Amino acid sequence: MRDLKEYDYSALLLNLTTSSLNKAQRRWRFAYAAIYSMRAMLSLVKEIVPGRIDPKPSLSLSYTALESGDGANINSMPLSHVPDIDQERLVEIMKGKDLTGIRALGGVEGVAASLRTNATKGIHGNDQEVSRRRDLFGSNTYHKPPPKGLLFFVYEAFKDTTILILLACATLALGFGIKEHGIKEGWYEGGSIFVAVFLVIVVSALSNFRQERQFDKLSKISNNIKVEVLRDGRRQHISIFDVVVGDVVFLKIGDQIPADGLFLDGHSLQVDESSMTGESDHLEVDHKDNPFLFSGTKIVDGFAQMLVVSVGMSTTWGETMSSINQDSSERTPLQVRLDTLTSTIGKIGLTVAALVLVVLLVRYFTGNTEKEDKREYNGSKTPVDSVVNSVVRIVAAAVTIVVVAIPEGLPLAVTLTLAYSMKRMMSDQAMVRKLSACETMGSATVICTDKTGTLTLNEMKVTKFWLGQESIHEDSTKMISYDVLDLLYQGTGLNTTGSVCLSDSGSTPEFSGSPTEKALLSWTVLNLGMDMESVKQKHDVLRVETFNSAKKRSGVLVRRKSDNTFHVHWKGAAEMVLATCSHYYTSTGSVDLMDSTAKNKIQAIIQGMAASSLRCIAFAHKVSSNGSGLEEDGLTLMGIVGLKDPCRPGVSKAVETCKLAGVTIKMITGDNVFTAKAIAFECGILDHSDKDEEEEAVVEGVQFRNYTDEERMQKVEKIRVMARSSPSDKLLMVKCLRLKGHVVAVTGDGTNDAPALKEADIGLSMGIQGTEVAKESSDIVILDDNFTSVATVLKWGRCVYNNIQKFIQFQLTVNIAALVINFIAAVSAGEVPLTAVQLLWVNLIMDTLGALALATERPTNELLKRKPVGRTEALITNVMWRNLLVQSLYQIAVLLILQFKGMSIFNVPKEVKDTLIFNTFVLCQVFNEFNAREMEKKNVFQGIHRNRLFIGIIAITIVLQVIMVEFLKKFADTVRLNGWQWGTCIAIASLSWPIGFFTKFIPVSETPFLSYFKNPKSLFKSSRYPSLKKPLKSLP
After folding, report:
1. pTM for this entry
2. Is 542 helix (H, G, I), strand (E, B) or coil?
3. How far apart are CA 846 and CA 853, in angstroms?
4. Cβ distance 131 to 137 under 8 Å?
5. S-S: 779 plus which of 395, 434, 493, 694, CB 3.0-4.6 Å?
6. Which parts pass through the membrane (predicted)?
7. Is the CB of residue 943 less than 8 Å from the CB of residue 975?
8. DSSP assignment of 667-702, as one string?
9. How far out from the chain centre does Cα 558 lie?
10. Which residues of 109-118 are buried (b: 16+ CB within 10 A; e: fewer)?
């Protein structure tokens, strides 16, 4: 009651019968008096019997007193004066689809009034109003389960079996060491293993934790959908998270409904509620029988305006999503292949470690090992503690070999390179929705792209207008008959999903809708002088058929109020509309018969405009006798407009880049064949020099789908342009190309593109023009709708694959060298030159720092000069085998010489020799990290100044190595080296560079290296006859 007193309605009541009030005003005041009295009585009841009524306040239907004379709108009062609304009851009605409950509240209009929403102007758009609504009704967000913390990943790292065995060994070594040497000296061996294992765990946990946070950020960006709402009488795009109760939201085909709401206005609306109910049948939504619209469902046909009544956690979708924890542990095809590689290497490492364990135990118990020039084992004379301690040390060394052999850095490298590339791709206008797309894009052999908005700017402008067979110029529009103009106003102003908003300043109106709709409305308003509001007021829209990709036109049935006549209007692809016409209008208003001569002339006009790369839209009209439906034949052509949509800057260069990269570009468009060819030549998809191949390169959708299966498979690779295509034609082409063994990327923006986007190896949806259905079906969202960004994604895809191959080459070099050295030394000398702590340190710099350094290399233009990677091509190529085997053999040779002859060559004791081996081995990996940057190019330093992270990691590795050798002597089991010894280690390691340089002159066979071991006969086969690759339907 407090809110009402502010407006001094008592004075209003006293003057109910004042003669100065007109009839309409008196009627409003009587209505207000009735509502006011009812509220006063209800408040008295609450005061008298407060305990007997439902404590939940009922939804108030009090309306602000409206002045009929001054046209004040329903949301003219600030939100602070909104009566109490039982939001919980409204939510219950929505969730239960309680139509009776809605009617009891005064229908959709009653709910809108209670929420202080003006159906034609929306809510106030100022920050204060929006924040008040958010405070009252909640925000359009849902509670997500808390993300996994760092401790979770630490716990996960502890689950590793090898880590647990190492910890057990460290515990035993610590216990026996302290018992044997006292706490001051005895903790070194066990404690150093503990510290090394701790470092491995922490680095692994931090990497995984960082990755989780990265995916969480990308998930938020992916979910931030743009929604079109009505505020202050203007249509504007806002984030889905900023939608509030009371908002009027515009919905069209392909949109995801952002909140729960009620149908305000619209036509032919059909909704797919399968995401909530599991039912595949589409549900019809209207004002009368089913006005309920639910968050998370999708519009499949028609368009509408929706009144938002509940948001966020008040919706069923919000409750469902809050209970789902999005898992970022998606396994990509490459990760699966790497798991197999890791498993194979792990088994080899386990075998080697088992042999080393057996050899060392046998040598120990047979008395063939010495410690401080004394035999370690003397039968029963040796204390039990000493025996156990020695056995633990031997087991720890064997287990550490397993740790080094198992390349757990491979999954980490994939994770790091994918995370890095995803982050960088965001800045390059590409948002990755599915991890696998990052790597798969690098293998793409064909890109099927849309024309409008992808190759072109999607900035439409009407540049030509033909009325019948007459070309109408801008300065001659006044010659057009008023009757024809009136019909054109109806055809554009009523048969549209766009709108016109007059600005307060009275300058140029604002147009909203699709680029085509905006261009047509702009032309009709600014050039033909249409007043859209006047047109709407003079007509009632009875039926609407929204634009259909099969018919390629939209229609509307209207009733003219002045004479109660019914008119059908169609608008769409010029040749499609022309085929339904039997007559045409002239500029004087007369109607002429559309005979074959006239039809041929108009077809020639359409072809002429299309050849100038104009999109042709035709308007047709018919007076309907009964107004029962949208008649589709016997129409009268009103006019044809040509819309210019220029090519995007840089698109021809991007197409040329893709061609050089061995990727074929195919343009699939709904435009007619002449427009499609003109744009294809302009973009470089078709070449003027290939006139002979032009007939096979350009087809229409109907022609393609009517081919036999054999013809289609035979011709599909030659096709460069498919015009007048439907989404089913696009899907058919994708299937054919995949059956031919191609890796196919497809761009799409419409709801009907979803099947093709899903069928393709990589689905690329458009971020601006793309519907939510298309985005959900895609793997990557191109944020700026630009084909240049598609070429950038191709480059990043190749970069991901290339970076992972670099790391595999680097890691396998270390694996092979470490395993061979330790095995030979253990078998021949009975000891391993690299201790457990030293091997764990090598493992750390190799797995974590190495992965970080090599996985973050940025893409280069050189990547686009290579052929695409085939589906069945080996992950470890012959070039990689050549590089890693040469480097491994060099390291093995050098370190074995140091192991057996180092003491005599350098005239140093055993401790210095062991330190020299350790130091040389680590420095070899540092120098080889440079070699790994380029697998085929001889200059490995090119562009290194741009990768500061690589330089930083190399510097950190060297600093830590110096600390390990010079300052952590007891911890790392090393001794200090003098300058000459450091220089020797660096000189030996630096020879990796010239060896790597000359290695790249060695030619390699095309036959995969490992196939020689599977099939020895292939050794004698010529590499000129590569084996046929069987087309696969899915990635390996």
Report:
1. 0.69
2. strand
3. 10
4. no
5. 434
6. 161-178, 190-209, 345-365, 394-420, 812-830, 836-855, 949-968, 980-1002
7. no
8. EE-SS-HHHHHHHHHHHTSS-TT-TTTHHHHEEEHH
9. 42
10. bbbbbbbbbb
**Exposed, middle or buried, 645 (CB in 10 Å: 0-12/13-18/19+)?**
buried
Identity of the amino acid at 642: G
Retrieve residue 986's tokens: 């660096």
* φ and ψ at residue 552, rounded to 5 degrees: 60, 40
What are the backbone angles phi and psi of residue 616, rounded to the nearest 5°?
A: -100, 125
834 phi, psi to nearest 5 deg: -105, 120
Distance CA 1015, CA 630 (A): 69
CB 676, CB 727: distance < 8 Å: no
- Which residues, at least 6 apart from 700, have a Cβ–Cβ distance to it below 8 Å? 673, 722, 723, 724, 725
- What is the rounded distance in angstroms from the CA atom of residue 754 to the CA atom of residue 454? 17
Q: CA-based angle 1028:735:772, to the nearest 5?
A: 135
Report how far Cα 208 is from the mean position of its chain's Cα atoms.
21
Cα separation, 810 vs 806, in Å, equals 6
Phi, psi of 632 (to 5 degrees): -115, 5
Q: Report angle CA 39, 42, 47 to the nearest 5 degrees.
A: 125
Element (H, E) at 430: strand 430-432
The pLDDT value recorded for residue 406 is: 67
pLDDT category of residue 411 using cuts at 50, 70 and 90: low
Least Cα distance to 231 among 338, 377, 121 occurs for 121
Q: pLDDT per residue over 60-71, tens digit each? A: 333 332 233 333
Calpha distance 490→620 (Å, rounded)? 11
Enumerate the H helices of 568-706 as residue ranges.
574-578, 596-611, 651-660, 673-683, 694-697, 701-706
Helix (H) or strand (E) holding 765: strand 762-766
Catalytic residue list contains 450: yes
Question: Residue 864: how many CB atoms within 10 A of its CB?
Answer: 18
In 3D, which of 963, 973, 940, 942 has the Cα closest to residue 845? 963
Closest CA to 1021 of 1036, 1004, 1035, 1005: 1005
Return the higher-pLDDT residue of 999 and 412.
Answer: 999
CB contact at 8 A, 841 and 200 = no
Helix (H, G, I), strand (E, B) or coil at 199: helix
Strand partners, 569: 556, 621
Q: How many residues does the chain have?
A: 1036
Alpha-carbon gap, residue 608 to 672, rounded angstroms: 12
Q: Is 305 helix (H, G, I), strand (E, B) or coil?
A: strand
End-to-end CA distance of the chain: 71
Backbone angles phi, psi at 448, to 5 degrees: -95, 115
DSSP string across 318-354: HHHHHT------PPPHHHHHHHHHHHHHHHHHHHHHH
Query: Rounded to 10 degrees, what is the CA torsion of 290, 294, 299, 302?
Result: 30
Catalytic residue among 272, 450, 671, 761: 450
Are the beta carbons of 571 and 613 closer than 8 angstroms? no
Please work out, in degrees rounded to the nearest 5, the angle formed at the alpha carbon of residue 549 by the alpha carbons of 546 and 550. Answer: 105
- Whole-angstrom Cα distance, residue 447 to residue 756? 12
CB-based contact 609:642 (threshold 8 Å): yes
- Cα 142 from Cα 321, distance rounded (Å): 7
- Residue listed under structure tokens 């109490």: 84
912: closest CA among 973, 869, 962, 852? 973
Sign of the torsion formed by the C-alpha atoms of 671, 675, 679 and 680: positive
Contact 304, 265 (CB under 8 A): yes
Torsion of CA 109, 115, 117, 123, to 10 degrees: -160
The pLDDT value given to residue 870: 65
d(CA 472, CA 575): 19
Q: How far apart are CA 764 and CA 665, in angstroms?
A: 14
Non-local CB neighbours of 457 within 8 Å, separated by 6+ positions: 645, 646, 647, 648
